[in-house]
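Thread: Modeling a multi-component assembly for a lab meeting

Hi all, long-time lurker, first post. My supervisor asked me to bring a structural picture of a complex we are working on to next week's group meeting, and I have zero experience with this. I have the sequence lines for every component (375 residues in total). Could someone generate the structure of the whole assembly? Inputs are pasted exactly as I received them:
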Amino acid sequence: MHLARFHAEPSIFAAPGRVNLIGEHTDYAEGFVMPVAIDFATLAGISPRSDGKIVLYSENYAQERSFDAAAPPTAASKHWTDYPLGVVAILAGEGHKIPGFSLSLWGDVPLGSGLSSSAALEVATALAVLSLIGVSYPGPVLARLCQRVENEFVGANCGIMDQFISANGKENHALLLDCRDLSFRLAPIPANVALVIANTMVKHSIAGGDYPTRRRESEAACAIINGHRGGVPFLRDATLEDLEKWGGEMEPKSYLRAKHVITEDLRTVAACEALLKGDMAEVGRQMGEAHKSYSQDFEGSCVEADLMVELANELPGLIGARLTGGGFGGCTINLVEASQAKAFAEELGRRYAAKTGIEPQIHVCHASGGAHRIE
Ligand code: GAF
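Re: Modeling a multi-component assembly
Sure thing. I ran the full set together rather than chain by chain. Output:
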């Protein structure tokens, strides 16, 4: 498509979406997450132009937009171009001179389903633009730049998980990330375990509404603990004892949000240890606990996602199920014995549709590699 539209052979880059196995709303609290890159991805094809323009084309939206490379927009406009333009703005802010280029985008990460379509778009675009200007950054640095696109350009107050796994994922592995220093451990996913992603079809968004509210509530609890004993700039540094001591001074909702975040860090590290030992029953148990905490204490779930998890728990082959991603809709992640995955997916879809009248999309996936150039 790029060649036909722009009459130039593109360099092509791919960046995957992600599913988070465990560790929700812990990344911006400098805690732990354990995501996996998935088979859905965004592709970005790029070629230079000599007319000083940045021309962006989205195959998904069937839309082309043109900008002046010498003076690209510096503010978001709630349009899909915000993501590639945000990448341009952040890279320009880093001192890179951005030349004219044509960029074609195509992706199959389902939009608004909590599988990080926007992170995939940012990372694919960043790799493409960086290759054009002959710059290469280590994966963690690339992830941080793309997180800044969300925080500083798009205006979404997210953490680093999604961009990090898209840039650094490894095939057949989950990645335990310490969001404080960006160190990570890779834990192999056994070949007899499938990732079944079940889309509730309830739209998820982090840009407005509940995501920033939850973040504020949990940070308010952190500030109270920090006010008492210091050394707790983030909930990562707080303990359950802290919560018991000073929880009475917190708004009840803040207390519950903090309880989720503090216990989620413990569960996430425990789940990684279990995965490294091949103890899948323990991984599944931690995921089950994580869902309860996400739903009841963090109030980050919704009726449909709770139902999807409940139905999964009735089916043979399930290892663990929970709502994944930013919350309030989107997808559940189910670890399922591979030999049963197809039957599990069909039956889950059938039961969910029968109860809700909503036809869910259910995907049997595997852990894919991180962003790369397609030769
Ligand atoms: C969204 C955000 F983008 C992540 O940074 C993370 O906070 C997640 O929600 C919740 O764990 O995906």
